[in-house]
Amino acid sequence: MVDVYLDDVFIGIIEKPKEFVKTLREERRLGKLPFHLNVNYNKMFNEINIDLSKGRARRPLIVVENGIPRLNAEKLMKLNNGEISWRELVDQGIIEYLDAGEEENAYVALYESDLIKEHTHLEISPITILGIVTSLIPYSNFGGSSRLIRGSKIQKQSLGMYASNFLYRMDTDTSILHYPQMPVVNTFMHDIYNYKTHPSGQNVVIAMISFQGYNMQDAIIFNKGSIERGFGRSSYFRPYNAEELRYSGGLTDEVIVPDKEVKGYKSEKDYRLLEKDGIVYTGASVKEDDVVIGKTSPPRFLGELEEFSIAANIRRESSTTIKQGEGGRVDNIIITENEEGNRLIQVRIRAQRIPEYGDKFASRHGQKGVIGAIIPEEDVPFTARGIRPDILFSPHSIPGRMTISHLIEILAGKVGSLKGEHIDGTTFDAVPEEQLRKELAKLGFRENGTETMYNAITGEQFKAKIYIGSIYYLKLKHMVANKLHARASGRIQLLTRQPIEGRSKGGGLRIGEMEKDCFVAHGASLLLKERFDSDKTTLYVCESCGMFAVYESYKNRKYCSRCGSGVEINAIEVSYAFKLLLDELKSMLIYPRLELKNKY
After folding, report:
1. Tally of structural domains, the chain
2. What is residue 18's DSSP assignment?
3. pLDDT higher at 230 or 314
4. CA of 79: how far to CAs of 84, 125, 189, 210, 284, in Å?
5. Which of 207, 236, 287, 513 has fewest C-beta within 10 Å?
6. Which of 3, 91, 218, 277 is catalytic?
């Protein structure tokens, strides 16, 4: 007896589960049951799950019977000629959609040549096992699954032309790559996806070589000449908003150049860029803490202000200023109204971003890295033909990660660049490596992609042959200019008296165990004395009962609230967080006793 569930609700018991499931599938293929119904027989739990719910990921497969696919040559011809549609194939039971549950009972073949009698389905194409973005990765059947997942995520973080009307949009935190290109090595999905309308990378010459230790681990070295010619250059956009809010009692915010009598008035220098209407002008060069929208607001707390009181007329300063670490040019200003009918001012700032130390770049194969050095062009190693690579990539990044697809793309990119054509790198259906090698040899290069290279600093020839070619590289949105963060003293939390969190608020940086070990290893262990006392406080402790004592500075008097004034009381330095812990223990009726030992 097997339990049957419909959308996780128990509906009954049946005796012959296999026949029941088979009948359901046949009825679905005949169109008697909805085509979005899926059924799964779980032998382990002895139950059948029928699903009609929304939101399930389902994928199409060709139905196979006795080792023969239902989609034959005749049907394919009709489909190509437009005589039958995709929907008709589904209605006729030639193609069906399976969800993750029903796939457990399916035996799917990748190719028609692999079919045996036990197979239940055939893939339309092996590439359908990948998603849209993952299928943009060339030669991805030569890379590991974890690298493909990373490659997919990396492509979503890459800069390019995200929208052709970006100049008219007020998007938060966006970037545009100045010179995006179509990849030399692409897949059929690039055409379907219409990738050429919004490319997000550039074709570069890459050499797999270690250089003076600057590309250790995942770091990459850039040719300064390439950057000066525009490689990896982008513009960063950020909008700043201000709204004229209405308050009870007829009070409103006002966008103007604040008057000197306003509470919290900054200085004339801060307001220098504002025009008469209180808004910055287009094209102004702004830096952090500059005011871009001048605004005044009514006082926060009206309290019991009288009508004739002077304080009632004092407004407070609430202007919009450029955030810490940001700046650039005022690119666009929009003055409009929001849903509530309040006046809304939006100012978009544009900043040019030229690749610098710490900026993140990646290939499409999950090989990401940050710029470790930017080398003058005259110092970059060159080939016998005088080619200087744009990027020096560490060869140690390959063996552990086994991204062979990365290596093949370098070879394919080299062939495509020399022949002046695109190379098809579609997964499972790409131009074979053997063919690429033959074509490279025909073009007068070594068939294995290596070349003789010279040390530009000494002029000596490298003993090893260097693997060099062309690859599609992406600039990622993680730029060091958005992440730089430092702080001296500043705002602290009220509860713990430790620095507040967050780069945008000017908060502190936590030092953990590993950071502490770095300081010690660098011989800077005394720095820890300074770093670890962000909430240092002096407490007075009663030697008798071990509780906190009271020190009255104006009377220069110490006493214990439990033992009185005839006991020994000493001052100790502890972190405020520890003092807070002791207070919380006391609130739980636990008696924490501090036993002091003599320092000397």
Report:
1. 5
2. H
3. 230
4. 5, 16, 20, 53, 59
5. 513
6. 218
Q: Classify residue 46: in a domain, yes or no.
A: yes
Q: DSSP assignment of 489-522, as one string?
A: S--B-TTT-SBPP-TTTT------HHHHHHHHHT
Residues 110 and 16 in one domain: yes
Q: Are residues 116 and 216 in the same domain?
A: no
Task: Write down how long the chain is.
Answer: 600
**Are 294 and 240 a contacting pair, CB within 8 Å?**
no
Q: Is 116 within the bounds of a domain?
A: yes
Which tens digits make up the pLDDT trace of 146-202? 999 999 999 999 999 999 999 999 999 999 999 999 999 999 999 998 999 999 999
Instruction: Tell me which residue of 14, 64, 60, 16 sits closest to 38, measured CA to CA.
Output: 60
**Residue 229: predicted pLDDT:** 96
Same domain, 119 and 43: yes
Helix axes 404-419, 433-442, angle to 10 degrees: 40
pLDDT tier for residue 504 given thresholds of 50, 70 and 90: confident
**CATH code, domain with 338:** 2.40.50.150
258 and 328, same domain (yes or no): yes
Domain check: are 266 and 346 in the same one? Answer: yes
User: What is the per-residue pLDDT for 250?
Assistant: 84
What pLDDT, on a 0 to 100 scale, did the predictor assign at position 505?
86
Its domain, for residue 495, covers 485-532
**382 — pLDDT class (breaks 50, 70, 90):** very high
Determine the Cα–Cα distance for residues 451 and 465; give it in Å rounded to an integer.
Answer: 5
**Assigned domain for 516 exists:** yes
Q: What is the pLDDT of residue 47?
A: 94
Clarify whether residues 433 and 336 are in a common domain: no
How is residue 125 annotated by DSSP?
Answer: -
Domain ends where: 308, 337, 353?
353
Distances from the Cα of 273 to the Cα of 129, 289, 540, 590, angstroms: 56, 12, 53, 60
Task: Note whether 175 and 477 are within 8 A (CB).
Answer: yes
- The domain that holds 565 is classified in CATH as 3.90.1800.10
- Residues 305, 253: contact at Cβ < 8 Å? no
- Average pLDDT estimate for 429-442: 95
Give the per-residue pLDDT at 305.
52
Residue 592 in any domain: the answer is no
- pLDDT interval class at 527 (50, 70, 90): confident
Residues 509 and 467 in one domain: no
Question: What's the mean pLDDT in 264-287?
Answer: 93
Q: Are residues 117 and 87 in the same domain?
A: yes
pLDDT for residue 304: 47
How would you class 580 by CB atoms within 10 Å of its CB: exposed for 0-12, middle for 13-18, buried for 19 or more?
middle
In the block, which residue shows the tokens 């006392």? 533
Residue owning tokens 């959609």: 97
**Binning pLDDT at 50, 70 and 90, where does residue 7 land?**
very high
Distance CA 39, CA 103 (A): 9
Active site residue 359: no
Last residue of a domain, one of 69, 98, 124: 124
